[in-house]
C-alpha cells in the first residue's frame, strides 16, 4: 500500500481486502454514516474522517499523511495481511463463499471504552437505533468537532461520564441500558474494571472479567473483546450468527453451543470468520449456501 498526500487528505494505492461498505456495515461499529454520494463520514479517536472509493483507490479526507500513518493505519488494521487470513479460512468451502461476499472486511481497532458502552447499548436493539443512541450520548458528553460546516462529537471518555446518573442519561433514550452505562463508567473509573488488562487474559477469563459489569453478557463481552481489544480468538453470537451457524454448520453445532462450534471450526481467528458469516447472513445469502 502506498499513501499519497493530496489536498485535504491522502490517497491510498494498492490497498487490498478493503471495502468501505463491508467494513462499516458488518455490525462492528456505529459511528460511520454512509452519505448520498456513497462516501462514509465517521468519528474515531477524537477526529472526523471522510472516506470514498474510486477507480480502485481509497481517498481519506480531513487528515494528513503523518496523521494517517500514526492513527488511521492502525485503526483500519492496514498492516495485517487479510489475504493470508482469507486463505486459511477459505479451506472451509462454506466460509469461502461467505468471504467472497464480504472480502473487504477489516476488524477496526476501536477504543475499548467506546466499544464497551456501544455494545451495552446494542443489547436487544437494532443498528439504526443503536447509532442514534450512541450519537445522542456523544452530543451530550463528547467534545464538539467541526468539519465541512457540520458539527460532530467525539465519544466521551470515562472521565466525562464521572458522576453521571440514569436521570442524566434520559435525553439519549437508552431505556434500561442507562443503568448499565452508568455502572460500566463507574467500574472503569474506580479501577474495578481495567480494560487494558483484557489483552493479557485468556478469552474465557476476559469474558468473565467483563461480565462483572451489569448488563454485560457473553455476547456483549465478546464484542468488546474483538472490536475493542483486538481479540480475534472470540466468536460473538447474536440472533444472526445463531441462525447462520445452525443453517450453514448444523452438524458442527450439534450438542455444543454455537460459540464453541465457531471456536472449534475457525480457531484463533474465529472472530474474523464470525464477521464474514454475519455479513453473509445479513446479505440474505443463506439460501444460496444451503
Largest sheet: 6 strands, antiparallel
The number of E-state strands comes to: 8
The CATH level-2 architecture of the largest domain is identified as Orthogonal Bundle
Low-pLDDT residue intervals, each spanning 5 or more residues: none
Shape: globular
Strand ordering within the main sheet? 1-2-6-5-4-3
CATH C-level of the largest domain: Mainly Alpha
Written description of the protein model:
- With 290 residues, this protein is of the alpha+beta class.
- The protein has three domains: 78 residues, TATA-Binding Protein (2-Layer Sandwich), CATH 3.30.310; 117 residues, Endonuclease III, domain 1 (Orthogonal Bundle), CATH 1.10.340.30; 51 residues, no CATH class.
- 43% of the residues lie in helices and 13% in strands.
- The chain has 13 helices and eight strands.
- A hairpin with a 5-residue loop joins strand 3 and strand 4.
- The longest helix has 15 residues.
- 37% of the residues are buried.
- The mean pLDDT is 95.
Question: Can you lay out the helices and strands and say which pair or pack?
Answer:
Blueprint: E1 2-6, E2 9-13, H1 20-24, E3 32-34, E4 40-44, E5 47-54, E6 57-61, H2 65-75, H3 82-89, H4 93-101, H5 112-121, H6 127-141, E7 144-147, E8 150-153, H7 178-190, H8 203-210, H9 218-228, H10 239-248, H11 258-266, H12 270-282, H13 286-289
Antiparallel strand pairs: 1-2, 2-6, 3-4, 4-5, 5-6, 7-8
Helix pairs in contact: 4-12, 5-7, 5-9, 8-9, 10-12, 11-12
Amino acid at each position: 500500500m502506498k499513501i499519497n498526500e493530496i489536498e485535504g487528505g491522502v490517497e491510498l494505492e494498492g490497498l487490498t481486502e478493503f471495502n468501505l461498505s463491508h467494513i462499516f456495515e458488518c455490525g462492528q461499529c456505529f459511528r460511520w454514516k454512509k452519505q448520498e454520494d456513497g462516501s462514509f463520514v465517521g468519528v474515531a479517536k477524537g477526529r472526523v474522517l471522510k472516506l470514498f472509493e474510486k477507480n480502485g483507490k481509497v481517498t481519506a479526507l480531513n487528515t494528513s499523511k503523518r496523521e494517517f500513518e500514526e492513527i488511521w493505519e492502525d485503526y483500519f488494521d492496514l498492516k495485517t495481511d487479510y489475504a493470508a487470513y482469507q486463505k486459511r479460512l477459505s479451506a472451509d468451502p462454506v466460509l469461502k463463499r461467505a468471504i467472497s461476499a464480504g472480502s473487504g472486511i477489516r476488524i477496526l481497532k476501536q477504543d475499548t471504552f467506546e466499544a464497551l458502552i456501544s455494545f451495552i447499548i446494542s443489547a436487544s436493539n437494532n443498528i439504526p437505533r443503536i447509532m442514534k443512541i450512541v450519537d445522542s450520548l456523544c452530543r451530550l458528553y463528547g467534545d464538539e468537532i467541526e468539519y465541512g460546516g457540520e458539527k460532530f462529537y467525539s465519544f466521551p471518555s470515562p472521565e466525562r461520564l464521572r458522576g453521571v446518573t440514569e436521570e442524566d442519561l434520559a435525553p439519549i433514550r437508552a431505556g434500561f441500558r442507562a443503568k448499565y452505562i452508568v455502572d460500566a463508567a463507574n467500574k472503569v473509573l474506580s479501577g474495578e474494571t481495567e480494560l487494558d488488562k483484557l489483552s493479557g487474559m485468556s478469552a474465557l477469563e476476559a469474558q468473565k472479567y467483563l461480565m462483572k459489569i451489569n448488563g454485560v453478557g457473553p455476547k456483549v463481552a465478546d464484542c468488546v473483546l474483538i472490536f475493542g481489544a483486538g481479540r480475534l480468538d472470540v466468536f460473538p453470537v447474536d440472533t444472526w450468527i445463531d441462525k447462520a451457524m445452525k443453517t450453514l454448520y448444523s452438524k458442527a453445532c450439534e450438542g455444543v453451543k454455537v460459540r464453541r462450534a465457531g471456536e472449534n471450526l475457525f480457531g484463533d481467528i474465529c472472530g474474523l470468520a464470525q464477521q464474514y458469516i454475519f455479513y453473509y447472513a445479513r446479505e440474505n445469502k443463506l439460501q444460496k449456501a444451503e
